[in-house]
Amino acid sequence: xxxxxxPGWQCSAWGNxxxxxxxxxxxxxxxxxxxxxxxxxxxxxxxxxxxPTSAPASRSSFGTAPGSIxxxxxxxxxxxxxxxxxxxxxxxxxxxxxxxMFLWGNPRLPLRPIFTMRAHEIRLMTNGANMPMTxxxxxxxxxxxxxxxxxxxxxxxxxxxxxxxxxxxxxxxPGVEASRASTRAAEERMRQAKAQFGPTLTADASYRYAWRRxxxxxxxxxxxxxxxxxxxxxxxxxxxxxxxxxxxxxxxQAGYGASVADMHSSEQDLMANVVIAYAAVLRDEKxxxxxxxxxSQLTETLDQINARYTAxxxxxxxxxxxxxxxxxxxxxxxLAQGNLQASRNTYRNILGHxxxxxxxxPQLPPLPRxxxxxxxxxxxxxxxxxxxxxDLAAAQGRIAQARxxxxxxxxxxxxVARSPLAVENDDTRELSAQVQVGLTVPLYSGGLLSARxxxxxxxxxxxTQQLEQTSRGVRENIASYWDQLSAxxxxxxxxxxxxxxxxxxxxxxxxxQLAGQVTSLDVLDTARDLLTSRQARxxxxxxxxxxxxxxxxxxGQLRADSFAPGTPPFDPNAYSSVPFAGLxxxxxxxxxxxxxxxxxxxxxxxxxxxxxxxxxVMAPEPEGx
Length: 625
Hints:
This protein is α+β, with helices and mostly antiparallel strands. Among the domains are: 3-151, no CATH class; 198-240 and 408-441. Helix content is 50%, strand content 13%. It has 14 helices and nine strands. The chain has helices at residues 47-50, 69-77, 95-100, 135-142, 145-151, 162-172, 174-195, 244-310, 316-351, 371-381, 383-405, 448-514, 520-554, 586-593; strands at 3-5, 9-11, 17-19, 87-92, 121-126, 200-216, 219-240, 409-420, 429-440. The strands form three sheets. Strands 6-7-8-9 form a four-stranded antiparallel β-sheet. Strands 1-5-4 form a three-stranded antiparallel β-sheet, with helices on one face. Strand 6 and strand 7 (219-240) form a beta hairpin. Helix 2 packs across helix 5 (145-151) and helix 7 packs antiparallel against helix 8.
């Protein structure tokens, strides 16, 4: 396989580049002496120097970079003749072949040329004696150069799909873990409320020392001291609380349901954030690539303007206009790279690691056929709406609790005690037991209990209004995401056609410029139109995917198992720390006490939003999406 190197440079066995002047070419070839290169006013704006992420490519350091692609290519492609030295042949190279030589040499240094060439010449080292080669044969030989370079490039270490990212976030995101811990705490509060129906058994034990002295007329007539133990066991069992304990249980159960709904809401928000972050990284990577391609094309345009300027076919104004676009392209590339890094930081915040080789976005679950079906699905499955319903149930439970606090309380108390008759010795002692049924009736509280009842009613009224407001918000989100998705589906094909038209216009403008029909400014403006159209299409593609995911989230259908079927779902009912709360008498007392729960109240009128949906027609999905 022949090896291609730049004129004036010798490639060693490991790709090290060292200077070697080329002898003056024979007459008629039109090649200059290597020691006197032609003037290139645009050398300071070459692709390697214009790249904001790469340092200038020096002749002595590029080929010696450890692990570089140039080293592997030279080592793999180098061949020797029978005498041990390769043959050389010098031939002129047209500009279009020069542009093909600006290949990706290092992943960290994009647009850095692997070979530094001089004007229109290249050395081709072949295996064997010097033999004539046609220009077409030489160009066909150069076609294999990109394949040789790609063969030495390392493959990506790892790749991540959207499903894998969702599974990682679902299982390890600290925000979701905190929500799950809050759900388990709410379950414990529910068990605390159920435990109040059962008995409370308390044991007391003491061991004391007592000393006593009795005197009469300053004469001690009795002196005693000693240690005495004392034991007691007491039992308290509520019998009937007129709905007080049942209301507390209902409040705890509603709080647990709201906590579960909030947990599901946080999970769906997390899934939406994963989709947004994933799509943002892919979008910004594409925008960075577009900015780099634009900068490379502007650099080539500057080279052409320089050549025309040297031949007096272009003016200084043409050069400055092109340089202006190049500097603007550099700024756009810097901003695009900054946006990409910001998206990568957001991705790390959600998943705990930076993205590495993200794969293309997968197909999203299908949508309902009409917006009415989407609204019905959201009303039934939205965790935000479910949480608002549980909040209303908890507010009604507080009304019953406030009413129960103003009603009688019936309970039974029992105790068993063993105590000495004398405090200083345990020789004589007694064992006693008693059982009593008590009735406690609140008679007067200065208006405290009635004020608490009115407060609970107002809170329940507020929860009723908040439920309607939440329902309106869910309906609004579904309708908005539906319309935005439909608009994005219609806009993406238009952006695609705009890119095609802009590319065709640029090709035509370049041909017309060669014929002198348009100016260089017209070509630059056409190139800017192509850049704008490509950027808009990349953003529209990401927006289309994100709007689809947000619509699924508004309907309560954005789940991790839809993208990663093997992800184990979190079951809040699997956590059971106190399975026997309130036993043995709790279930019977709970059943009786529930008969007296009074949580009825008359809410203020609610203006229900029930307008019929206008004509929301979903646009068809674009082809290739």
